[in-house]
Design brief:
mainly alpha, Alpha-lytic protease prodomain-like, Alpha-Beta Plaits, three-stranded mixed sheet, elongated
């Protein structure tokens, strides 16, 4: 049976998160390191977030229905926001542990064993995170990309914890360990804020510059080939492997209806070809060229042939 690579990757990530948490908790209890505690705390968040991401990946793949005519894909942004919020909460706990460690000091133990465990986990996270991001981008799965970036951030937190313990082992200065915890807390906080911002941008349909440029280029080709005279009122957005495009296409006023429809269909097919292996939904509205006067200024936030630079 051929399995969907996206779901297989998420399943591996979910299983890995459990082993990561167990390994990091073991390293913490062996060393009593504040940095290791910070790393383990981040893994708790990662495990919960990965479970929700797995559910979101499954739910987003459900087909559109009567209650959700545009499908269920937007849940991926809720997943990203949820993950970001959990990461942000974890960062405060991590910073607190670092501050308390600096104030009251720490008695570190079995540093060598802790370093061996943390180093093994860090190497695995680096490989897993890179694979998740690669698979997510290949199959246009935002949840996988977000989860992969979180795994990579987990690698960096572990690397910071390792660095703190190495410095303690070399210098004998235990205060370097809680200092590493503070650095980890700051990095986790930065990651959480980034995930929340990305989720808000997606929910608010923020413009995707790369997508807009590709759509504009396709429409410009249609103008140069004289399939249409101009275009305006273009809007587009992308969600996982789905692309939504809306555009008004202008043709000469004396163009027969069936010919105008044929040209619009040709433009739609050209745009659809720009996004292979993706589901593309295009809505075009054909207008006579003279109707351009009804949009003297166009829409300040939508693409048209004037703002892109087509000749009149």
């Amino acid at each position: 049976m051929i399995r969907d690579p996206r779901h297989l990757a998420m399943r591996i990530s979910l299983i890995a998160s459990v082993f990561m948490l167990a390994g990091k908790l073991t390293a913490y209890f062996l060393t009593h390191s504040a940095a290791m505690f910070a790393d383990a705390a981040e893994s708790v968040v990662h495990g919960v977030a990965t479970a929700f991401a797995a559910f979101s990946l499954w739910y987003a793949a459900r087909p559109a229905d009567a209650e959700h005519p545009y499908g269920h894909g937007r849940i991926v942004y809720f997943s990203m926001g949820f993950e970001g919020a959990l990461v942000l909460v974890a960062s405060f706990a991590v910073v607190r542990s670092g501050v308390l460690g600096l104030i009251y000091g720490l008695e570190l133990q079995r540093i060598g064993v802790g370093l061996a465990i943390a180093g093994t986990l860090a190497a695995f996270n680096l490989a897993l995170g890179a694979a998740l991001v690669r698979i997510g981008k290949k199959y246009n799965a935002l949840v996988l990309v977000a989860n992969g970036k979180h795994v990579l951030s987990d690698f960096w937190t572990t690397a910071a914890a390792i660095l703190g313990l190495v410095l303690v082992n070399l210098s004998g200065r235990n205060w370097l360990d809680p200092l590493a915890a503070l650095v980890i807390g700051g990095w986790i906080m930065f990651t959480g804020i980034g995930l929340i911002r990305a989720a808000i941008a997606g929910l608010m349909d923020a413009v995707d510059p790369e997508l807009a440029a590709k759509v504009a280029a396709g429409l410009e080709d249609a103008v140069r080939d004289r399939r249409i005279a101009k275009y305006h009122e273009v809007r587009c957005r992308k969600l996982n492997d789905e692309v939504f495009i809306e555009a008004h296409l202008l043709v000469a006023g004396n163009t027969p209806l069936d010919e105008a429809h044929r040209r619009a269909t040709d433009v739609e097919n050209r745009l659809r070809a720009l996004f292979p292996n993706q589901r593309v939904y295009i809505t075009t509205h054909v207008e006579p060229l003279a109707h351009d006067a009804a949009h003297p200024q166009g829409h300040p936030h939508r693409l048209d042939s004037e703002t892109v630079g087509s000749p009149r």
